[in-house]
Amino acid sequence: RKLFRVMDSRLDGLYPSKGAYKAAILALHCLTPEAKQRPRMSEVVEKLEVIQSIKDTSKYSQRDGPGNGNGNRNLNHSPQN
């Protein structure tokens, strides 16, 4: 429940909640004070790839989301030149 307090409300639930939870847990592991306890970048990449493939019954997967038609939303807000 606390996870949803830190999620960007502009996303309006357009993400799989299971994936968001796993990403939050991964972020916490990356912030461990003891460097040797943190995951290696290869592990982070591997876990992010798994998270990216997660689908569930959130609003994200129930409607045809914006983007490329498969529910994936482009969240890259960098300006285009």
Automatic annotation (TrEMBL):
Coiled coil: none annotated. InterPro entries: Plant_Ser_Thr_Prot_Kinase. It comes from Pinus taeda (Loblolly pine). Residues 55-81 are annotated as: Disordered. Residues 71-81 have a biased composition (Low complexity). This is Protein kinase domain-containing protein. The lineage of its organism: Eukaryota, Viridiplantae, Streptophyta, Embryophyta, Tracheophyta.
